[in-house]
């Protein structure tokens, strides 16, 4: 699914999410990625929600975002309450949705200059 370009640009813009690919700016990735609130793009060693643990969420919180968006792949999968507790203890909001929806939400929040991070599991 290609996304329409938004008139406000930010350092990391998600341009496409499709099966086996996430395109950020002009680069395509064939693995899950983290987008930090300080505009770092990192590989994420996660292939499904069941892989998640507190240590894999720490890089999302390190840059002190207001909100973290978790993309769970092709379908929305809810996180274990123990994982949600990691965000609550940090005082950070968290939203969980399919990766395509997470990409759209991230772009909107980043364009609004919200301090946002995202963890996107490759669909």
Q: How would you describe the overall organization of this protein?
A:
The protein has one domain (14-120): Hypothetical Protein Mth938, Chain: A (3-Layer(aba) Sandwich), CATH 3.40.1230. Strand 2 and strand 3 (27-29) form a beta hairpin. The longest helix has 13 residues, at 99-111. Helices cover 25% and strands 27% of the residues. Strands 5-4-8-6-7 form a five-stranded mixed beta sheet, sandwiched between helices. It has a three-stranded antiparallel beta sheet with strand order 1-2-3, with helices on one face. It has 123 residues and is an alpha/beta fold. The mean pLDDT is 93.
Helix/strand layout:
Blueprint: E1 14-18, E2 21-24, E3 27-29, E4 33-35, E5 41-43, H1 54-61, E6 67-71, H2 81-90, E7 93-97, H3 99-111, E8 116-120
Parallel strand pairs: 6-7, 6-8
Antiparallel strand pairs: 1-2, 2-3, 4-5, 4-8
In which range does the helix fraction lie? 25-40%
Largest sheet: 5 strands, mixed
**Overall radius of gyration:** 13 Å
Strand line-up of the largest beta sheet:
5-4-8-6-7
Mean of residue pLDDT values: 93
Specify the structural class: alpha/beta
- The CATH C-level class name: Alpha Beta
**Tally of DSSP β-strands:** 8
Gross morphology is globular
CATH topology type: Hypothetical Protein Mth938, Chain: A
The amount of beta strand, in percent, is 25-35%
The secondary-structure element order is EEEEEHEHEHE
Count of discrete alpha- or pi-helical segments spanning 4 or more residues: 3
- Low-pLDDT residue intervals, each spanning 5 or more residues: none
Q: So, CATH architecture?
A: 3-Layer(aba) Sandwich
- Span from first to last CA? 11 Å
Domain unit count: 1
CATH superfamily: MTH938-like
């Amino acid at each position: 699914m290609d996304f329409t370009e938004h008139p406000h640009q930010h350092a990391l813009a998600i341009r496409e999410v499709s099966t086996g690919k996430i395109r950020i700016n002009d680069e395509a990735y064939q693995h899950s990625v983290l987008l930090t609130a300080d505009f770092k793009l990192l590989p994420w060693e996660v292939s499904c929600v069941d892989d998640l643990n507190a240590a894999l969420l720490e890089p999302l919180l390190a840059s002190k975002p207001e909100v973290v968006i978790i993309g769970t792949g092709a379908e929305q999968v809810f996180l274990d309450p123990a994982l949600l507790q990691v965000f609550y203890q940090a005082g950070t909001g968290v939203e969980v949705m399919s990766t395509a929806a997470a990409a759209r939400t991230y772009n909107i929040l980043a364009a609004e200059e919200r301090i946002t991070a995202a963890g996107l599991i490759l669909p």
